[in-house]
Amino acid sequence: MEGETLYSIGELSRRTGLTVKTIRFYSDRGIVAPTDRSPAGYRLYTIDAVARLDLVRTLRSLGLDLPTIHKVVDRELSLPGVAATHAEALAVQIRVLRLRHAVLTAVAERGLTAEETDLMHRLAQLSEDERRHLIGGFLDAAFSGLGAASAFAGIRRSMTPEAPDNADAEQIRAWVEWAELALDPDFRAGLRRMAEDLAAEQAQAGTGLRRDLGAVVHDQAGPAVRAGIDPASDQADPIVAALTAHHAQALGRPADAELRRLLLARLERVSDPRRDRHLQLLAVINGWPAPQSLAPALNWSVQAVRVRTGR
Asked: What residues form DSSP beta bridges with 36?
């Protein structure tokens, strides 16, 4: 073109940093077509080719295919529209990669068998409907039929995992482990029994009961654990008496030897380490602060009550 500077492929290569072979490749496919040819037949380009090649290089680095790039540089497709489509596709790929990373990390950390790995992989890839079904079935197994639904509504909400769409690897690993626990028949049965215990205590709410056993254990046994009090010592007697009195009020029965046996059974159920792990996993999945573990205080209470029941 008259009056306009034209550049050879070699000059374009020096200006763009692309190899001559790469520029010729794009030129052959019409993505960056030559403007003219020299008398010797060599391709010549205007300065606009530099901008097109820079755009092509950027779009290639973002993973766009050549036919799409061709349409973008020729303005047959909107770049923002193409970008949005590819961003959505990348989001799906990222989620898949996160799932794979989470499963492989868990397999390595926990030393899982091939069967356990297969289960974990399937749990990680559950659809939204499948996750809701699993969660609902787990919560129903624990709480359905125990008095008015409203009585356990708050507890159900606090035990519902709600992983975000952009869950990170830690949340995905926590979800998979939570799902494994939720499918464990023994854990479900233990949680159901704990819920039945709680329902029985709530039935006595008219007696003036205002705090659950966990709160009393935290307040009474927690300081004893921190002070290093031996659960079999005389110093533990007032604490066991307080726990016994609370449970007697909760069940509406006298604080006798049978009541202490019932208290021990209740404490043993609540002290199941899987319950603690379940709460920790929920916190990770939902992005909540890590819960304070009641395990030390519960284990101390179990030992203290067991010594005094002769078991």
From this structure: 44
